[in-house]
Amino acid sequence: MMKENKTPGKSEGQMFPISNRYVEPKVISDRHFKKQTHQEHEALAAAGELNEYRLQRRLKSELERIAPDRLFRWCFRSHRLPLSVMVSGVAGVGKTTLVQKFIFDWATGKHYQKFAFVFFFKFRDLNTITEKRSLESLICQTYPHLQDKLPRVLEDPKKLLFIFDGLDESKTDLKLRRGEAHELCMNPGDVKPVTVIVASLLKQTLLEGCSVLLTSRPSKLISLEAGVFHRVASIVGFLSKERERYFSMFFGDERVSREAFAYVRDSQVLYTLCYNPSYCWITCTALKPCFIARAGRPQPTPKTVTQLFVSYVTHIMANHTQERPEPQRMRDTLISVGWLAEYGIINHILVFDLKYLQDFNVEFSPFLTGFLVENPQTNDSSQVTYSFLHLTIQEFFAALVHYLDYKEDKFRDTMAKARSCKEGDYEIFSRFLAGLSHPATKMPLEKYVGKFSAEVSRKVIGWLSEMTYEELQSPEEPKGKRRLMNVFNLFFESQNSQLVHDVMGKAAHMDFSDLYLMPVDCTVLAYVLSCCEEIQCLTLDSCFIQNEGLERLRPELHKVRELSLLENDLKDPTMKDICKALKHQNCRLEALSLGNNAFTEQCCEELASALVENQTLLSLDLKKNKLRIGGLSYLSRVFESPECKIR
């Protein structure tokens, strides 16, 4: 059985079988796992579509899907039965839930009956153990009923599985790198620091032959020695079918779930969030009042990530308690929680003990339990820690507090940190900061907690307007281009078209060649293009833009004077969107490069028809496509026409 998070000071949360709500995420075994960057794993914007791309497109030969019940089966890459397995994934992607389902299936006899005992530990619980321990005492503390039987239990290590969940929350490093000197355990009775016990199990100096499963966020893997693990797997979350199934299970009503999913799918910015089960739940919760009419007045649907989280927070405030607190009390509560969240973001703290809450004057209100939840310790229910429901909710409140309780010195310091941060840090926080500056985005929250600081809005808009486009076009490849796309995400969240117009200038040049542009990137890019009067040059060579991405860009392509789409493996269906741009009454296209794609003679009649109507195109590049004689015959008639302007 699983239970929902406990409301502080209230009765236990609702119990339910895990099988009732479990939608299996995709897990991959990846030999290039260690080479992937921190940003690729942790970034919010394109992670979902990137996972889908990696699984379905170019990297199929390097990735293999692996069912959770095969984690300890024969591994063809290491040519052995793995004893040590690492399962990694970003916050909220389902690492703990996958492990719980793994244990549930083992306990109900569905798999891995070779294990007689499965021992489950959380690093957040192990952090509370400051003194040295032995493995025997560790097991007895968590599983006291095994006290008398433990020597017999440990007799056959091959029948034992140890699971350690949340390595990223460990306060002490495992020190698994070669050459790091530390004394490992040899016997279950050896008294050592807890992390040494874990390292000893992994290194097989303790209970040789036992199996060990660790979970962690990807950022922690950099400090580990890859060779210690016989199999490294990554949870990439929900692909399209799993997202759709989750919506169906959440809403229950097939019509409502279909409408909500169709909206999210079309939005793309929201859809890409839903690769992560936690975001999926937040999205569904936020959209519920939008698609289930109350008194015939459903709420407006969110378009940006900030608007989604505003919808989520207002939904919790409206529905999480029967007696709604006074606006000032709500505001004070959010301010206290916000400063706690900001302190955690700055100091990389995800789990807070009671003293943190007291220091920041956080008093629990019923509606607050929708954001901040209790984590009772496995071995001591009197010791409780607290965490935000998801890291992104923590980042949202860290941004929100500056609008509710503006303090010039704190705001200045936070912005200085955000400006000087490494790639990926403060990225989501900055998006929320930009998004909350828009009047329509913050309005639903202002109804509950009063007006936001106008000074913060001015300063955030000023910060965004200081970005000169020439400086954004960094020569670094491809980091500079991804950085530029991240800035475009800030513009998208701000929904301030005049601001974007002023920053981009009258005739922008954009070059994203060799940067994978997922459909969500194309949605954001299309918004930026929509704010520009004219785009002198848009280069999207080797960006892996496909039908969906080009469809999202299509409404703005007629503004571009020079458009290059070389080497994107574009196929015939995408020609419809290109032709619509060519036929647009205000088309400005003068140069169009479509070389090195997969167009065939089937699309040439449609292209020829568009060229007849177009009066601006001077240069057309179609080299290295499969047009054949039939396709060229259509085009040659256009080129021979006296009205044809193509040179």
Automatic annotation (TrEMBL):
The keyword Signal does not apply. Keywords: ATP-binding, Cytoplasm, Inflammasome, Inflammatory response, Nucleotide-binding, Repeat, Ubl conjugation. One of its GO terms (biological process) is positive regulation of inflammatory response. It is found in: Inflammasome. PANTHER family: NACHT, LRR AND PYD DOMAINS-CONTAINING PROTEIN 12, NACHT, LRR AND PYD DOMAINS-CONTAINING PROTEIN 3. InterPro entries: LRR_dom_sf (IPR032675), NACHT_NTPase (IPR007111), NLRP_HD2 (IPR041267), NLRP_innate_immun_reg (IPR050637), P-loop_NTPase (IPR027417). PROSITE patterns: NACHT. Residues 83-219 form the NACHT domain. Pfam families: NACHT, NLRC4_HD2. This is NACHT domain-containing protein. One of its GO terms (molecular function) is ATP binding. It comes from the Eukaryota. The lineage of its organism: Eukaryota, Metazoa, Chordata, Craniata, Vertebrata. Gene3D superfamilies: P-loop containing nucleotide triphosphate hydrolases, Ribonuclease Inhibitor.
